[in-house]
Amino acid sequence: MAIIKFINNKVSLKKTLDYICKEEKTDKKLITGKDCIPENAYEEMMTVKNMYNKLIGREKIHFVQSFSPTDKLTYEQAHEIGIRMAEYFKGFQVIVATHIDREHIHNHIVLNTVNFETGLKFHQSKLDLQKIKDLSNKICKEYGLTVTEQKSKVSDIKINEYQAKLKGISWKQLLTNDIDSVMEKSNNKYEFFKGMNKLGYKVNWSKEKLSIIYTTPTGYKCSDKKLHKEKYLRENMEQYFKEKSRKNIKGIKNEKITYKSIHSNLADIIEQISKNKQLDNTTSLTGLNESAKKQFAIEMHYSTEELEDMEL
């Protein structure tokens, strides 16, 4: 599966080309130019702009083609797909750089907004964007990759966020790095809450809300949809921990109680709580062992602080 994300910002053409071609992010063999030489791409693109006197306005179109970690894809194959995407832009100079510094492979595709054959500028209409996404799906199918037919559920990167990312000072990048780290170490949502709390974050993951809301140690607030990756969406996070919990439970051979018995016990607890309307959120957890408390928190979407409050 490949997701297309357009980078809408005012970062200069030169800075953008420098960024996508950084040595620590890619390799020379994974940088290709269409109708221009990568090493001289900026100068060649500016020559076209000067030739047609198109020096004002948007300098480039920049989008990222991200592939799913579940797809079996080599860096070279991803780059081939990126080159085929570039061929779609007839008469436009394009640079394709495949980045290998993240857990998922992704292509950065940057094109000059001025067509060297006609002198006309590229107009980025909604129809144009959809055609590019449809082309990506078509090529991915040819490579045997999964495709996404639905509109992305996460938002595009905004100007200020991308500029901060280029400078290495993005608080959202720090947040996602911490989320990744804590997710890897956590076996369930309860442990995830606890791990994020230790790092100074507040996590609002309640049953009433459709999104997860994070508050950083410095006071910034952010929903899962604003983290730009579908892996961080609530439904995907829940599925991740559900599968991880199931695997861990199956791996415990010395436990006398099985997941089925725990789940049944939990169902009885929840049923008893629902019958007593007066208990509401102030339900006392006295009498539950630690295992039952943890399962209760996981299923009811309570954070660490909320669970501790109920025990007071």
Describe this structure in words.
With 312 residues, this protein is of the alpha+beta class. It has two domains: 2-166, BirA Bifunctional Protein, domain 2 (2-Layer Sandwich); 170-311, no CATH class. The chain has eleven helices and eight strands. The chain has helices spanning 13-20, 41-51, 75-86, 126-142, 159-167, 171-185, 189-198, 234-251, 259-275, 290-300, 304-311, and strands at 2-6, 31-34, 60-67, 94-99, 106-112, 202-204, 213-215, 221-223. The strands form two sheets. Strands 1-3-5-4-2 form a five-stranded antiparallel sheet, sandwiched between helices. Strands 6-7-8 form a three-stranded antiparallel sheet, covered by helices on one side. A hairpin with a 6-residue loop joins strand 4 (94-99) and strand 5. Helix 6 packs across helix 7 (189-198). The longest helix is centred in the C-terminal third of the chain and has 18 residues, at 234-251. The protein is elongated. Mean pLDDT is 80; it is low at 277-288 and 299-312.
